[in-house]
Structure formats: C-alpha cells, structure tokens
Amino acid sequence: MSNAATDLPDSVTLAEGEGGLPVVRVATAVATGEVYLQGAQVTAWTPAGSDPVIWVSGAARFAVGEAIRGGIPICFPWFGAGREPGLAPPAHGFARLVGWRLIDATDDAGAVTLTLRLTDADVAGLPAAAAWPHPFTATYRVTFGRELAVALTVENTGDAGVSFEEALHTYLAVSDVRATAVVGLNGAPYLDKTAGATPERMTQRGDVTFGGETDRVYGSVGSVVVRDDAAGRSVGVTKEGSANTVVWNPWVEKAAAMADFGDDEWPMMVCVETANVLDDAVVLAPGERHTMTARYTVTR
Ligand code: TA6
User: Distance, CA 4 to ligand 1 centroid (Å)?
Assistant: First the structure.
C-alpha cells in the first residue's frame, strides 16, 4: 500500500520532530523506528515485544547543525579528529550535521526500508565540508523489522582517488553497562584511546567488560554480541565491509563533562560501532563504491 500524495507507505510518516527537525517515523506490527533527516540519524528502533534497543540521551540537543547524542550517528568522511590535521572541527565529519534526502520508502510485510542520500552538492559551501572537497554520493538504507539493518554505500563520483573514514556510531540501550559484556573480540588487537595522547596498542583478552571509561578501536571484521545480563537480553551485531569495531562508554567524568549527556546516564548505554577508521580507512578509485553494513538482532 502506498500513500499516493506523498508516495510513502501508510506505515511511514514524515513529521516535525524534536526541535522542529524533520523526522521519518515508521510503525508496523513488526517494529517501530525513527530517522531524523539531519544526519540520516536513526534515533529509535523497537521490535514488537521488545524494549527499545537504541539509546538517546535525555539531554540530547535537537537543533540544526548540532550532533544528536545517541541513536546511530553516521561518522563520515572522518572519524574523531580525522587522520590528518585541518579536518576537525567538527569531530566525526559533517555527514551527521547536515540534511539528507529521503529518496525511497518501501514496506515489505511490515519490514520498512528507507533510502536516504547525501552528495557533495548537498554540502557545497558548508564550512564543515571545506576540508574534504571531494565529489561523492552517499546512500544509506535502513530497514526497520524484527532486525534493524543499516547499509552505508559511498561512491567516488570524482575523477581522482579518494580516501575516507566511516563509522556507524551506534548507541545501544543496556540496563547496566557494569553488568554488560561484549562477546566476540577475544584476541583482537585494539587501540586504547583512554591511554592519553597516544593510544596504546593492546590485545583483547576474553569478553569486553566495563569498569571505567572505555574507548577502544578494535581491528576486527567479525560479529559481536552485546550481553546485557541484568536485563537477560542480548543484541547481536553482525557486519560486512568493516575492519574496525569501536567500543565506547564515557563513564562518570566524561559523561559529566558533556552538556548533552546526563550525568547519571552512562550506565544505560554502550556504543558498539561498525567502522573503517585510521589505517583501515576506505580508498576508492574514480567510479568505485564501497558498502558497510550492520545488522542488529535482539534475543532474550
Ligand atoms: O567513538 C568513540 C568516540 O570517538 C569517543 O572518543 C567520544 O569522542 C565519542 O566518540 C563521542 O564523540 P562525539 O563527537 O559524538 O561527542
């Protein structure tokens, strides 16, 4: 079924969200979800019969050009401060700060797929994009169903080679990060970004558990499971086209230092990010494209 007037399925509505920002809301018998056009940022996904899976800070700012704290920020075309001087600010690139275009919406028996797009033409003249003046087309597909599937495809539409970093910076809701484990990274190398100015190279031993600020960039192409023992729930994170998994929790001091992060919110979230960053940045020849996907599955 589709609503001919706006060419959207009846299960998809375009509305004015927080801060007056345009948001696409999805509601079917299978799942509900929402994506802000600013940053093509997923800010909610709840499969039928489950508690919300995606976390957003109660102190999140919803304003034009401001990063929304939570959901699935798209970090592109750089991660953090970037691999070379002169990129940041803003941290994590400009894609999460600008309006993407909704170009398609389909409902397949309750699983809704939204397709959003951003090109270099959309950011032409934007100060945040001046440091990375390359022709590109980014296409982002989000499927809200029993699982949440996201896929970021970047095409080099220029006539020169290009390199970029990318991360789906996913904030997952947990009942208590102190009773949460990320399973599947045993033996993986990682950079510990809490070690000071120069990240320390380490190797993961066993499951990732949390007893303080945690900010690690793993070299890992595999899936992980976020085991929320206190809630008796697990969230599987399966990925393709990604060489890095980033795990982050700000803990007490960092949370208190962020105006858009409640001081007492840090136990209720963990970021497990699907990424290609640092030495694993993506390099595309003219006309080439690359897709990175992540799929989230809730199991009791
Ligand atoms: O992915 C982890 C990280 O790079 C942390 O170092 C922290 O900066 C976090 O991202 C949040 O970044 P943001 O720019 O969204 O505040």
Answer: 41
Ordered by start, the domain boundaries in the chain are 12-299
Which residue among 248, 258, 261, 265 has the greatest number of ligand 1 atoms within 8 angstroms of its CB, and so is best to mutate?
Answer: 248
Q: How far is the CA of 111 from the centre of ligand 1 (A)?
A: 31
Summarize pLDDT for 83-93 with one digit per residue, the tens: 999 999 999 99
Pick the catalytic residue: 34, 147, 155, 273? 273
- Sheet of strand 111-119, all strands in order from the earlier edge strand to the far edge: 101-108, 111-119, 136-144, 147-156, 289-299, 233-240, 224-228, 180-183, 208-209
Fold of the domain spanning 12-299: Beta-galactosidase; Chain A, domain 5 (2.70.98)
What tens digit of pLDDT does each residue of 94-136 get?
999 999 999 999 999 999 999 999 999 999 999 999 999 999 9
